[in-house]
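Practice problem: predict the structure.
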Amino acid sequence: MTKTEKDILEAAVQVFSRYGVKRTSMGDLAQEAGVSRQTLYNTFKNKDDVLKGLIRNYTDEALRDIEAGLKSAQDIGEQLDILFDKMVVAGFDLVKEMPNAQDLIDGFNAAGMEELDASAEKFRRVIERMFMPHESALARTDLTAPDLSDFVQRSAKAAGRTARDKDHLMRQLKTLKQLCLSALRS
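Answer:
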Protein backbone atom coordinates (compact mmCIF):
# COMPACT_ATOMS: atom_id res chain seq x y z
CA MET A 1 0.00 0.00 0.00
CA THR A 2 1.34 3.41 -0.95
CA LYS A 3 1.68 6.33 1.45
CA THR A 4 -1.11 8.14 -0.41
CA GLU A 5 -3.46 5.15 0.00
CA LYS A 6 -2.62 4.95 3.71
CA ASP A 7 -3.17 8.70 4.16
CA ILE A 8 -6.54 8.53 2.42
CA LEU A 9 -7.68 5.53 4.45
CA GLU A 10 -6.61 7.15 7.72
CA ALA A 11 -8.49 10.29 6.68
CA ALA A 12 -11.52 8.20 5.75
CA VAL A 13 -11.74 6.71 9.24
CA GLN A 14 -11.66 10.22 10.71
CA VAL A 15 -14.17 11.75 8.32
CA PHE A 16 -16.55 8.77 8.26
CA SER A 17 -16.56 8.64 12.05
CA ARG A 18 -17.18 12.39 12.25
CA TYR A 19 -19.88 12.79 9.57
CA GLY A 20 -20.93 9.27 8.68
CA VAL A 21 -20.44 7.59 5.32
CA LYS A 22 -23.53 8.98 3.61
CA ARG A 23 -22.82 12.61 4.53
CA THR A 24 -19.13 12.43 3.61
CA SER A 25 -18.16 13.63 0.15
CA MET A 26 -15.08 12.71 -1.82
CA GLY A 27 -14.10 16.37 -1.39
CA ASP A 28 -14.23 15.93 2.40
CA LEU A 29 -11.97 12.89 2.09
CA ALA A 30 -9.49 14.69 -0.16
CA GLN A 31 -9.32 17.68 2.18
CA GLU A 32 -8.82 15.54 5.30
CA ALA A 33 -6.13 13.47 3.56
CA GLY A 34 -4.36 16.56 2.25
CA VAL A 35 -4.56 15.42 -1.36
CA SER A 36 -6.20 16.86 -4.44
CA ARG A 37 -9.53 15.48 -5.59
CA GLN A 38 -7.78 14.19 -8.71
CA THR A 39 -5.27 12.25 -6.58
CA LEU A 40 -8.14 10.85 -4.53
CA TYR A 41 -10.03 9.73 -7.64
CA ASN A 42 -6.85 8.27 -9.14
CA THR A 43 -6.41 6.22 -5.97
CA PHE A 44 -10.04 5.28 -5.23
CA LYS A 45 -12.86 5.53 -7.79
CA ASN A 46 -15.55 6.35 -5.24
CA LYS A 47 -16.60 5.96 -1.60
CA ASP A 48 -17.35 2.27 -2.18
CA ASP A 49 -13.73 1.73 -3.12
CA VAL A 50 -12.63 3.66 -0.04
CA LEU A 51 -14.84 1.48 2.17
CA LYS A 52 -13.47 -1.67 0.55
CA GLY A 53 -9.96 -0.33 1.06
CA LEU A 54 -10.67 0.27 4.74
CA ILE A 55 -11.95 -3.27 5.21
CA ARG A 56 -9.03 -4.77 3.30
CA ASN A 57 -6.49 -2.68 5.22
CA TYR A 58 -8.03 -3.51 8.61
CA THR A 59 -8.10 -7.21 7.71
CA ASP A 60 -4.51 -7.25 6.47
CA GLU A 61 -3.24 -5.47 9.61
CA ALA A 62 -5.18 -7.81 11.89
CA LEU A 63 -3.90 -10.88 10.01
CA ARG A 64 -0.29 -9.66 10.27
CA ASP A 65 -0.73 -9.15 14.01
CA ILE A 66 -2.37 -12.56 14.41
CA GLU A 67 0.37 -14.34 12.45
CA ALA A 68 3.06 -12.61 14.52
CA GLY A 69 1.30 -13.53 17.76
CA LEU A 70 0.71 -17.13 16.76
CA LYS A 71 4.45 -17.67 16.37
CA SER A 72 5.00 -17.06 20.08
CA ALA A 73 1.78 -18.62 21.41
CA GLN A 74 2.34 -21.56 23.73
CA ASP A 75 -0.88 -23.45 23.04
CA ILE A 76 -4.23 -23.37 21.24
CA GLY A 77 -5.86 -21.45 24.09
CA GLU A 78 -3.34 -18.65 23.75
CA GLN A 79 -3.73 -18.76 19.96
CA LEU A 80 -7.49 -18.30 20.33
CA ASP A 81 -6.93 -15.35 22.69
CA ILE A 82 -4.69 -13.67 20.11
CA LEU A 83 -7.13 -14.40 17.31
CA PHE A 84 -10.15 -13.05 19.20
CA ASP A 85 -8.26 -9.96 20.33
CA LYS A 86 -7.19 -8.97 16.80
CA MET A 87 -10.19 -10.27 14.85
CA VAL A 88 -13.00 -9.09 17.15
CA VAL A 89 -12.01 -7.06 20.21
CA ALA A 90 -9.87 -4.49 18.36
CA GLY A 91 -12.69 -3.78 15.90
CA PHE A 92 -15.26 -3.64 18.70
CA ASP A 93 -13.12 -1.07 20.54
CA LEU A 94 -12.59 1.00 17.39
CA VAL A 95 -16.31 1.14 16.61
CA LYS A 96 -17.20 2.05 20.21
CA GLU A 97 -14.83 5.04 20.03
CA MET A 98 -16.54 6.48 16.94
CA PRO A 99 -19.39 8.92 17.45
CA ASN A 100 -21.10 7.89 14.18
CA ALA A 101 -20.13 4.22 14.28
CA GLN A 102 -23.57 2.94 13.31
CA ASP A 103 -23.57 5.13 10.21
CA LEU A 104 -20.19 3.68 9.24
CA ILE A 105 -21.54 0.16 9.68
CA ASP A 106 -24.71 1.04 7.77
CA GLY A 107 -22.50 2.42 4.99
CA PHE A 108 -21.33 -1.08 4.13
CA ASN A 109 -23.39 -1.62 1.00
CA ALA A 110 -23.20 -4.59 -1.36
CA ALA A 111 -19.62 -3.81 -2.38
CA GLY A 112 -18.59 -3.48 1.24
CA MET A 113 -20.39 -6.69 2.14
CA GLU A 114 -18.47 -8.57 -0.56
CA GLU A 115 -15.22 -7.28 0.93
CA LEU A 116 -16.39 -8.28 4.43
CA ASP A 117 -17.12 -11.79 3.11
CA ALA A 118 -13.62 -11.98 1.62
CA SER A 119 -12.20 -10.80 4.93
CA ALA A 120 -14.16 -13.45 6.83
CA GLU A 121 -12.74 -16.14 4.56
CA LYS A 122 -9.17 -14.97 5.26
CA PHE A 123 -9.77 -15.20 9.00
CA ARG A 124 -11.47 -18.58 8.61
CA ARG A 125 -8.40 -19.98 6.83
CA VAL A 126 -6.12 -18.85 9.68
CA ILE A 127 -8.42 -20.49 12.22
CA GLU A 128 -8.52 -23.68 10.18
CA ARG A 129 -4.73 -23.77 10.14
CA MET A 130 -4.77 -23.41 13.94
CA PHE A 131 -7.12 -26.39 14.26
CA MET A 132 -5.41 -28.69 11.74
CA PRO A 133 -2.93 -30.16 14.27
CA HIS A 134 -5.96 -31.22 16.33
CA GLU A 135 -7.84 -33.03 13.55
CA SER A 136 -7.72 -36.43 15.26
CA ALA A 137 -9.35 -35.02 18.42
CA LEU A 138 -11.95 -33.23 16.30
CA ALA A 139 -12.70 -36.39 14.34
CA ARG A 140 -13.60 -38.19 17.59
CA THR A 141 -16.42 -35.66 18.03
CA ASP A 142 -17.45 -35.81 14.38
CA LEU A 143 -16.05 -32.33 13.68
CA THR A 144 -13.60 -31.15 11.05
CA ALA A 145 -11.14 -28.28 11.17
CA PRO A 146 -12.92 -26.48 8.27
CA ASP A 147 -16.34 -26.79 9.91
CA LEU A 148 -15.13 -25.69 13.34
CA SER A 149 -13.14 -22.80 11.88
CA ASP A 150 -16.22 -21.58 10.00
CA PHE A 151 -18.31 -21.81 13.18
CA VAL A 152 -15.68 -20.01 15.28
CA GLN A 153 -15.16 -17.21 12.75
CA ARG A 154 -18.89 -16.57 12.36
CA SER A 155 -19.63 -16.87 16.09
CA ALA A 156 -16.79 -14.56 17.12
CA LYS A 157 -17.81 -11.91 14.59
CA ALA A 158 -21.46 -12.20 15.65
CA ALA A 159 -20.40 -11.73 19.25
CA GLY A 160 -18.62 -8.52 18.25
CA ARG A 161 -21.73 -7.21 16.49
CA THR A 162 -24.27 -8.14 19.15
CA ALA A 163 -22.44 -7.68 22.44
CA ARG A 164 -24.13 -5.21 24.79
CA ASP A 165 -20.78 -3.96 26.06
CA LYS A 166 -17.12 -4.98 26.30
CA ASP A 167 -17.67 -7.19 29.34
CA HIS A 168 -20.45 -9.05 27.54
CA LEU A 169 -18.22 -9.49 24.48
CA MET A 170 -15.39 -10.88 26.57
CA ARG A 171 -17.73 -13.39 28.27
CA GLN A 172 -19.03 -14.54 24.88
CA LEU A 173 -15.51 -15.01 23.54
CA LYS A 174 -14.48 -16.87 26.70
CA THR A 175 -17.42 -19.23 26.20
CA LEU A 176 -16.49 -19.77 22.56
CA LYS A 177 -12.89 -20.47 23.57
CA GLN A 178 -14.00 -23.01 26.18
CA LEU A 179 -16.22 -24.77 23.63
CA CYS A 180 -13.26 -25.00 21.23
CA LEU A 181 -10.93 -26.31 23.90
CA SER A 182 -13.50 -28.93 24.90
CA ALA A 183 -13.88 -30.08 21.29
CA LEU A 184 -10.12 -30.22 20.84
CA ARG A 185 -9.62 -32.32 24.01
CA SER A 186 -12.21 -34.96 23.14
